[in-house]
């Protein structure tokens, strides 16, 4: 352990949260806040940010105020703390005057240790004065990137926090936490919250429990329906680029008998709220959504995120895929790629962005996303290096490249023929015509134009039409060809193609062997994460149902009772006494007392797979 963590902090961690040690990335921020030194913590989703400030809050005398951007997030966090016997409360616009008064009374009498506040409340002078009179030991700004216009979730009300901090009679220690790590966001956080002297801790971006795959298939709908059916007891998100696709995927899954929800910007607040709630409490198995389904999702047991289309850049992809497996248990992130996605994105960038410089930047980001889809080496390594992190290992053992699903095939012969056909027809045609020429089809259009006289005519008569079209898509994606986009895209050669024609470069295709799309990946041995859900068998499902029943009775999100990781361990360990139950990671004293006997009974009643 690099940092000295007090015994008291470790005791609190075990008593309240049921964990015997801090994660390495949590130690420094916890120690720093305990020493009353400001902290900026940049940690990826699922790294365990909350504990970094919740434990110091429990150790300090006085109140911790936590600013949090969304009412739903705030409620989840507070519910999760209260069920662990941690005195927490929230103040936001949903409270009645009586509830507000009661909460403030409890805060003033020192009963509450953590008070979650929506920053909008700082707009009221009266409220600011009330807060100023409290013994504030620590102020935490959660999702701190919301303060910056450079971030993706700018909230003007976050700007009130800095001013309010400056007005306090005694400056408390301040911690700002976020998963967004760009320098401009970090600088804004420093400047606007007065954190120039803060200790900045940046945790690696790797999420070892997530497996990453790219599947290149034209039959995406079949894949999705098949995949979801193979994972009936799991929750997942399917991201689509357009509202129309959301509705199509939703229809198909619903027809296949799957409890599916949908979510996009065109729905009323009421419907969105309903969908989000039903998904959070496990009533819905799958949510099909556009990227509008975002920050409010604190659900820890999302077991897979499928992308029905390739997103526009790696930043969006990592953020959306990262909603899987927040609980640290194995989860899958699968991107379904089709060459059409490239055309659509290029078209949208050209149409929606005026500035040529911005266009150029977006195109470069898009190219990096395409390269990810065609990356034949470790996908995780590629992704981390994109975000500026170097890795010492070469294989993660937990992505579609490392699991050996790909085969490299030399396609230089095919590439040269296609490039020559494009050159011979003066870059005037799209893929259909070029394929017909290289396959030697004597259509009326071809003979009339005299293309059957080209030396390359019929040079690839041994290759079928579909494979050739797929290859052309890959040549575009890999930057050998340029496609004009729009309704009738025309192909032209790039400098890369000229290198190939000059014999200076070979072209490889990555061929995938996708048969049954349900392969549940093993968790990388590099990570040491607990066993997979599959290993836990039917007892896990039985415990999940039991948790669901309790969740309904108590009106509490299922994952706040116990996350999936605890259920997996329970199913594997099958404790028979409260003592054995207490050894399960993530079971603190309060939850043991509250739910221990009920889960022990559920385990003893289970008669399956013994
Ligand atoms: P973040 O806010 O960074 O996305 P959370 O605070 O929600 O992450 O934590 C993610 C998961 O990790 C939660 O299920 C949490 O209980 C678990 N966790 C946090 N700290 C520890 C720890 N020291 N040991 C084991 N699990 C932990």
Automatic annotation (TrEMBL):
It comes from Veillonella denticariosi JCM 15641. Keywords: ATP-binding, DNA damage, DNA recombination, DNA repair, DNA-binding, Helicase, Hydrolase, Isomerase, Metal-binding, Nucleotide-binding, Zinc. It comes from the Bacteria. It holds the Pfam family RecQ_Zn_bind. CDD domains: DEXHc_RecQ, SF2_C_RecQ. Its EC number is 5.6.2.4. GO terms for biological process: DNA recombination; DNA repair; DNA replication; SOS response. Residues 220-369 form the Helicase C-terminal domain. Belongs to the helicase family. RecQ subfamily. PANTHER family: ATP-DEPENDENT DNA HELICASE Q1 (PTHR13710:SF105), DNA HELICASE RECQ FAMILY MEMBER (PTHR13710). InterPro entries: DEAD/DEAH_box_helicase_dom, DNA_helicase_ATP-dep_RecQ, DNA_helicase_ATP-dep_RecQ_bac, Helicase_ATP-bd, Helicase_C-like, HRDC-like_sf, HRDC_dom, HRDC_dom_sf. It catalyses: Couples ATP hydrolysis with the unwinding of duplex DNA by translocating in the 3'-5' direction. GO terms for molecular function: 3'-5' DNA helicase activity; ATP binding; DNA binding; four-way junction helicase activity; hydrolase activity; metal ion binding. Its cofactor is Zn(2+); Mg(2+). One of its GO terms (cellular component) is replisome. Residues 30-199 form the Helicase ATP-binding domain. NCBIfam families: recQ, recQ_fam. Residues 533-610 form the HRDC domain. This is DNA helicase RecQ.
